[in-house]
Amino acid sequence: AAPAYRYLTISEPRPGVGQVTLNRPKALNALSTPLITELNTALAALDAAPSIGAIVLTGSPKAFAAGADIKEMAPLTFSQAYTTSFIESWSALTTAVKKPILAAVSGYALGGGCELALMCDVVYCTASATFGQPEIKLGTIPGAGGSQRLTRAVGKAKAMELILTGKFFSGEEAERWGVAARVFATHDELMAGALDTAETIAGYSQVAVMAAKEVVNKSQDLALRDGVEYERRVFHSLFGSKDQKIGMKAFVEKQKPEWAHE
Ligand code: HXC
């Protein structure tokens, strides 16, 4: 039986598309440890489900997520944070999930909410979405990769200003600055756009899609020469997949490929 979630809803709104909706409305989807534990469980289940080819992660029209749970963090001591590796489990999303995750961001994406979006593979948002790393106002700093991923996305000049001032930026700016791939006028248009893209991706070979995600993400970690070599090795390895033969044969024969996902 599918696990029941307290802070999430799971659906399959399009063929091959798993949607995870953060559902903690009273706290604007603040990312408590129990919520993140559920999110990791849900994403692992979708990653393992053969019928799912792409994942959409979203919140409500009001909030993607307003940050890590400030009420949970307020009393935390250094030794508790250190010995429990507080926040480390958030990275499961980037290290364990092989299928692409699209973040569809409406409303607030602040602090850990902004970082959660930045961990996803593609970000789409509404023009009026509110992004920001306001941790400085709470006497702390981003702790889930914001100082690294935001800086890679927008460059040091803007990231430094945003993180030192805590000032918010709009979805329209997020798209212009390279945080988001596309921006939409309304929440409904955002969801339709995210699901269209996820459905397109889910229509391709899962092996090739996973490899594509892996090599693009490697570009964030490796120097150019190493990254190009890494890409070539993975490209070579795909000649060992059934789907490369299926895809190229279908092109030559002017047929639609029927992927084996092998
Ligand atoms: C816990 C939160 C919360 C959060 C909102 N709430 N954000 N609870 N953690 N991050 C709760 C409020 O306490 C309130 O609960 C309810 O959600 C509604 O919020 P309001 O403030 O009443 O709503 P509004 O006036 O519309 O203001 C929206 C807001 C504001 C601008 C988004 O809520 C806000 O500034 N939130 C905090 C944003 C933030 O600083 N995020 C970064 C967190 S630090 P009650 O019970 O009062 O109704 C962080 C660290 C990351 O993320 C590092 C590691 C991951």
Automatic annotation (TrEMBL):
Record-listed E.C. numbers: 4.2.1.17
Keyword annotations of the record: Fatty acid metabolism, Lipid metabolism, Lyase
Gene3D superfamilies: 2-enoyl-CoA Hydratase, Chain A, domain 1 (3.90.226.10), Lyase 2-enoyl-coa Hydratase, Chain A, domain 2 (1.10.12.10)
An individual GO BP term: fatty acid beta-oxidation
Entry GO terms, CC: mitochondrion
GO molecular function: enoyl-CoA hydratase activity
A Pfam family reported for this protein in Swiss-Prot or TrEMBL: ECH_1
Cross-referenced InterPro entries: ClpP/crotonase-like_dom_sf, Enoyl-CoA_hyd/isom_CS, Enoyl-CoA_hydra/iso, Enoyl-CoA_hydra_C
Superkingdom assignment: Eukaryota
Family of this protein: Belongs to the enoyl-CoA hydratase/isomerase family.
Name recorded for this polypeptide: Probable enoyl-CoA hydratase, mitochondrial
